[in-house]
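Our consortium's second objective concerns turning raw sequence data into structural hypotheses that experimental partners can test. To show how far this objective has progressed, the report includes one record in full. It was chosen at random from the queue rather than selected for favorable results. The single chain below, 119 residues long, was entered without modification.
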Amino acid sequence: QVHLVESGGGLVQAGGSLRLSCAASGRTLNSYDMGWFRQAPGKEREFVAFLSWSGGSTAYADFVKGRFTISRDNAKNTVYLQMNSLKPEDTAVYYCAARIIAKDEYSYWGQGTQVTVSS
């Protein structure tokens, strides 16, 4: 069982930056693929970023490419999402999730952290 807790959300002006953290307990994250997702009010949850268990592969949604960076610190059992050049349309609850290697579905989810970008 993996327990994920996100932090680092908040209110920021457009053009600003935030770094989200996803701290894990229960298992070490270095045997899981990790993802960040977000859900804005009235919208479906959408994929934001992916980082493979080895750290050798990443993927980003087109709307965050060049602005967001996913990374991990295995020593701290934490995954990060660095968000730069934030836009009002980035306002959402951000969730991290862990996926067992070779599985299609993410098995573990955090509770989410609110990011609000003002114009």
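The partners drew two points from this record. The mean pLDDT is 95. The chain has no helices and eleven strands. Both points have been shared with the crystallography group to help prioritize constructs.
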